[in-house]
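Field log, afternoon session.

UNIT: design team B
ACTIVITY: writing a sequence onto a fixed backbone
BACKBONE:
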């Protein structure tokens, strides 16, 4: 009887170790890309942890200077950040020309938001399109995750890739 209890304890402890090992192997991006049923089992992060992981992935300053646990090169992230910042400035220069500044001067500093909405939209849309193309060309982490997934034979890591 005592041997049966010891065997059950060993089996339970091995299962716990295996779950901890799987959880330690998956990082934030892999946890985000898990199927729903597997995510319920494996993803035990709190809301704050999920939110911070999303910030580390999407916010340009945090992604460039504070996210070291991804598979992107820091030099490429830095050049990408500088390029996107200057692109935003250049797009604003193109769409907010002398005419719009002169109209602002003639109105004695009263800002006409309705007139500026198309310029803001054009500037934002073009900047975001350039950012999407640049991210597709420069970020290297998604192909590395795909290679990592293909090399692993573990069925608990079924990830959905678009």
């Amino acid at each position: 009887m005592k041997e049966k209890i010891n065997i059950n304890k060993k089996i339970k402890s091995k299962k716990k170790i295996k779950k901890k090992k799987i959880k330690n192997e998956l990082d934030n991006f892999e946890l985000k890309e898990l199927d729903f049923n597997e995510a319920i089992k494996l993803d035990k992060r709190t809301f704050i942890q999920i939110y911070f992981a999303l910030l580390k992935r999407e916010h340009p300053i945090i992604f460039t200077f504070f996210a070291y646990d991804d598979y992107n090169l820091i030099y490429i992230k830095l050049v990408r950040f500088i390029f996107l910042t200057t692109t935003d400035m250049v797009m604003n220069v193109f769409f907010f020309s002398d005419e719009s500044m002169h109209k602002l001067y003639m109105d004695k500093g009263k800002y006409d938001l309705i007139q500026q909405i198309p310029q803001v939209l054009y500037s934002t849309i073009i900047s975001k399109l350039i950012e999407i193309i640049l991210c597709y060309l420069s970020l290297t982490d998604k192909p590395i995750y795909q290679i990592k997934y293909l090399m692993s034979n573990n069925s608990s890591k079924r990830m959905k890739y678009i």
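LOG NOTE: The CA atoms of residues 149 and 157 lie 7 Å apart.
NEXT ACTIVITY: expression trials, pending approval
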